[in-house]
Amino acid sequence: MKFKLHFYGLIVSIAFSTACGKRPETRRIDWSGKERGTLTSAPMKFDTAALLRVTSSVLHGDLLFVEQESIPDNLWSLFRINGDSLHWQGVLLQKGKGPFEIHQERAFILDPGNDSLVVNPTGYAKNYFTIPTHDPAAVLDKKQWGIHAYPENIGHMDIMAPTTDGGFITATRDEKENMFEIFFPGDSLAESLVSPYPETDQPLVGNAKGYAYNGRIYQRPGFDQYLQVGSTGRMAVVFELENKRIVRRKEIYNKLPEFELAPDGMNLSPSGENDLGFRFAVSENYIYLCPIPFKLKNLGVVKDYKGYPLGYADELQIFDWNGNPVCRYELDTPVVSLTVAPDESYFYANTIDPETEAPRILRFALPPLEY
After folding, report:
1. How confident is the model over 82-103, as pLDDT tens digits?
2. CB distance 112 to 133 below 8 Å
3. Which of 47, 108, 232, 363 is the most buried (most CB within 10 A)?
4. Vertex 66: Cα angle to 280 and 10 (nearest 5)
5. Rounded Cα gap, residues 118 and 163, in angstroms
6. Which phi and psi angles does 208 have, rounded to 5°?
7. Is 135 in contact with 121 (CB distance < 8 Å)?
8. What are the distances in angstroms from CA 155 to CA 148, 181, 213?
9. 218-243, pLDDT tens digit by residue?
10. What are the beta bridge partners of residue 250?
11. Reading across the β-sheet that carries 225-230, which strands appear in turn?
12. DSSP 327-352
């Protein structure tokens, strides 16, 4: 069976130059006494004609926003949850050149924790959108959406995360000195945050570092605290935003991606020894990491993982927001993404039937955790 792999933001090549630095000792997690056995899933029921290959989802109340890759030009769809069933509401976001369409490959949906969601197109997009959610029936009514321009000095947009005072922090590939920038709606320019890149012995300078350490940023709901996860390597860091500075930075994992000289002698390529990062989610009290159990060199060589595509994972590691390990579970089914309920009692995960490749959305109950 031929699977399509699910990896985004992998670095292809980076301009070569020379730099010096040091590589920190790789942090290892001690799970002694924290193993909690297997979490069992329950499949959600849905109309298979409406739900095709799912790559990620966002939960907001009883609404589940689903990113899909198998429907031409349809990027996100909306479902309403009713018990163990998903009821399709309609297409939320499409590819195109219309006022509320995007021509980029991807867009992320952010939940700032108020009465609106944010659509964050990636790449060289010029605008982002806001969707009012105080009236769920109006979510699909684009007449009620807002459109906002990105600051002029933002080049390639990877991902942004909301701040508690209405702004956004973003990691862009064009910033040369710092990892993050901040802006507020209506700003013509984004402002650089004091956020130096990790020290490393890899020959990366200038905006090459932005490509090397790109990834995702998730906000702790209701706080100016964030999780940054690298696209490759084993890099997961918690930090806080305070007075436009990155403070109280704590590494959960610190295995940075490595690079090697390409055959042309001029460019750097990611090493095949790099790990493939994590599938992950956050809630108010916890961080959920699923390490992808393969390396970059396995792509195109190893056919599957337990009958599922490479990129799926079935080990769930839970940490608190101080970066301390809480517990570790095995999932009964490998998954490609997950989203956690606000009360932290369960999470939804996206996967497939390995025999038919039909999409499946699973619900896992989470036992109570002490915090």
Report:
1. 999 998 888 888 888 888 888 7
2. no
3. 232
4. 50
5. 12
6. -60, -30
7. no
8. 16, 12, 16
9. 999 999 999 999 888 899 999 999 98
10. 238
11. 215-219, 225-230, 234-242, 245-255
12. EEEEEEEEESEEEE-TTSSEEEEEEE
